[in-house]
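Methods — Computational structure assignment.
A single polypeptide chain was analysed. Its primary sequence is given first, followed by the predicted tertiary structure written as structure tokens.
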Amino acid sequence: MHADLSRVTFRPGRHYSAVVAQQGRAQLDADANEQTAIQLHQVRTLAADLIGQHGGPAADAGFHITFQGGSRDLDDLTIGGGRYYVDGILCDATRPLPGAAVGDEAPEGAPGDEGEADPPGPDEPPATWTYWDQPDAYRDPERPGDRLPERRPFLVYLKVWERSVSATEDPALREVALGPAMPDTAARVKVVWQVLPLEGSALELEDPEGATKEQVGKAFGAWARKAAAPASRLAARAERPEHADEDPCLVRPDARYRGPENQLYRVEIHEGGTAREATFKWSRENGSVVFPVDELDGTWVVLASLGGDDKLDLNVGDRVEFVDAAYTGRGEPLPLPRVEEADLPGRRVRLSGEPAPGVGRRPELRPFLRRWDHREPTRRPRKGAAARSRHGALAVEEGRWLPLEDGVEVYFAPGGTYRPGDHWLIPARTATGAVEWPVNTARQPLLQAPAGIQVHYAPLAWVTAEQAELDLRMVFGPLATPAPAADAEALAAEAAAEAEARAAAEAEPEG
């Protein structure tokens, strides 16, 4: 998650069951966050063990799919309300009811008035979500790739993952009593679900038209396992950089990590694909340095606020990502523009290019700039060269160590396939002059799969023809059952025990 963290310490393989606070010790964000992670892991593992890979309660199973074919309008799907669990993660498809506004005078039909309330107006939102207005998918009818497949059959599935939300994206998280000069407090983690289509040909069924529910579910399971499995690995280390003796930084003379402060480096894939196609970006602040956008005018961006200090502000030459809720939900990376000019009194910056038309134009989507800390290399020596840049991000180069800064280096394993959003976290510490990264007995860094994004999938419906769907959901009933009635022998024993207790009480002398 993009949050201002010191580090992330939760490791399922360590089998810790709780975090124990000790008196007189410093309280760290990593400890509190690990306790939350332990509890989530336990609850979701239990739910998955009891429910299975996916399923919903029989009395309120959500995500029932109804295909709505139209001769004039675009095809659509109705998404039934209710709850559904995917790998133990709760997804709720119930559409919230709109609030009732109260004006200066009470409306007719309010409690206490005679007569009935007026019927809902024509602008009353529907009771359920649809494919085109689901809350976190941001499908665009103008984009052919977003439309439902014309060729049938096709599968409708549920895609689930989690992302962090800060006060920049949800201002209600900020405590206004602290004042505008104070930083925000805790961030949140949000479950994101999307109902998406999948071409039937992607499942490799022998007879798609006559496939049974079990055959489609099994084929989708194979597709989902392949889509969710990590296909790239990275290692990190800190090596003493060249000319370190000339560096006046106040760190240990033998330090390999030469940064003046503790950092949490985030290395994140920007564009996906093979090593030839993929790019990455990195941040020394875990990508948490963001700037809310008030207005966009061509290449000029008016910011709601600037950074709190020199470490958290924007400078000429910085690479930024123009982000809003739709951009995050779609997961389709765009070029990273460079800050060309900064007008600090006016809270404005000029970018090297105008953001894409579909990003940052709608205030309700909370647009903001996210700062990344990589820079284009000015030269490319043979040894220890920085990665090449492409569209503002750095090209993935496998099989060699790539320097980030201050001695921190990363290594992409050969043969990887990369997905946008895949990321690794690298804590760097001045006390040790090194980075915290798993190593073997010879102190060599180990290759690690991405820390996220962890995506989960579940099949919902197999659309075979107009107005015909095969429901692929699973349901479960409550575990509790009525207590069995006692037999005659048990009732007689209970009555005898009660009579014996009364007789003993009557036999006790008074006083």
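Note: The chain has a mean pLDDT of 89.
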